[in-house]
């Protein structure tokens, strides 16, 4: 049975943990806002890049696909999945959900699979499923560290594409949902296909003027595609970080509630035991007084 000293130590320990949880909640909430603002700021930039690509397609009278997707299995075809996870724990099912989604989605895509992973936690889970991990990156700890990571990933993509070994690139990441929670999404990054062209052409041109391309059209398209890839992967990373901190915030809220319930329970036990000890001491005093009173007679 716990003594008053034991219960007091447990109460102090629970209070210390609660303070840590509050600090982690505040940090997660702050980072969610930071990453959500980054995603929001990408909206105008992405729209501008899309308009530029549409201007090129119109000016060059390109209405067909840039590269048709390959659905049949071909010799040497390799599919690369870029998966954003987490390096840290206390994120609930964040890594488990995306790992299951990646495994299920890749089963429907033909060809050899190669996985590039951002995050040690999700890497371990994916490796346990038998997927082939070939590259790993650390999760950026701040918004300032996102750009260097994306630049490294894009350099690796370009280097790999030059060899012609990998034909398709997909990006998997968790995306915050409106209101609360998050969901896993998949985006086909490369090759640019007919569906991609159709989506670009749906973008409304802001004026009635017909767009024109000045300078070398090939260099213009290369710059636009590079910007498109950068903003696509950057947004995936920022949304993943926002979702990770959303999951951590939810975990901390659950932990705070559990600690609160524990503090209430321990507080009641402490008060009950303390009152029992006071009652026993009073009973001893009264008993002693009665005994002395009887001896006087």
How would a crystallographer describe the biggest sheet? 5 strands, mixed
Query: Could you estimate the helical fraction of the residues in percent?
Result: 55-70%
In CATH, the architecture of the largest domain is 3-Layer(aba) Sandwich
Strand runs, count: 5
Can you tell me the CATH class of the largest domain?
Answer: Alpha Beta
Radius of gyration: 30 Å
Strand content of the residues, in percent?
A: 5-15%
Label the overall shape. Answer: elongated
**Unreliably modeled segments:** 68-74
Mean pLDDT: 85
Number of helices: 6
Fold-level CATH name of the largest domain: Pyruvate Kinase, Chain: A, domain 1
> How are the strands of the largest sheet arranged?
3-2-1-4-5
> How many domains, in number, for the residues?
2
Order of helices and strands: HEHEHEHEEHH
**Structural class by helix and strand composition:** alpha/beta
In quaternary terms, these chains amount to single chain
Identify the CATH homologous superfamily of the largest domain: ATP synthase, F1 complex, gamma subunit
Separation, N- and C-terminal Cα atoms: 42 Å
């Amino acid at each position: 049975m716990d003594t008053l000293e034991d219960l007091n130590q447990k109460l102090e320990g629970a209070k210390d943990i609660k303070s840590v949880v509050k600090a982690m909640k505040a940090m997660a909430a702050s980072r969610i806002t930071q990453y959500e603002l980054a995603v929001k700021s990408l909206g105008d930039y992405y729209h501008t890049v899309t308009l530029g690509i549409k201007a090129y397609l119109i000016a060059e009278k390109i209405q067909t696909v840039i590269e048709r997707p390959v659905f049949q299995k071909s010799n040497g075809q390799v599919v690369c999945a870029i998966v954003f996870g987490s390096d840290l724990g206390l994120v609930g099912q964040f890594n488990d959900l995306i790992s299951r989604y990646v495994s299920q989605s890749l089963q429907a895509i033909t060809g050899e699979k190669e996985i590039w992973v951002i995050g040690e936690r999700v890497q371990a889970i994916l490796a346990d499923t038998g997927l082939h991990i070939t590259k790993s990156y650390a999760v950026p700890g701040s918004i300032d560290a996102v750009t260097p990571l994306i630049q490294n990933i894009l350099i690796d993509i370009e280097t790999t594409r030059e060899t012609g070994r990998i034909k398709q690139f997909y990006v998997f990441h968790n995306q915050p949902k409106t209101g609360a929670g998050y969901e896993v999404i998949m985006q086909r990054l490369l090759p640019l296909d007919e569906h991609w062209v159709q989506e670009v052409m749906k973008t409304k041109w802001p004026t009635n003027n017909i767009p024109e391309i000045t300078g070398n059209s090939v260099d213009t398209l290369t710059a636009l595609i590079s910007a498109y890839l950068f903003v696509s992967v950057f947004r995936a990373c920022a949304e993943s970080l926002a979702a990770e901190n959303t999951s951590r915030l939810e975990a901390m809220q659950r932990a705070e509630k559990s600690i609160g319930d524990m503090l209430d329970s321990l507080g009641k036990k402490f008060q009950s035991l303390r009152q029992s000890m006071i009652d026993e001491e009073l009973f001893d005093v009264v008993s002693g007084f009665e005994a002395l009173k009887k001896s006087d007679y």
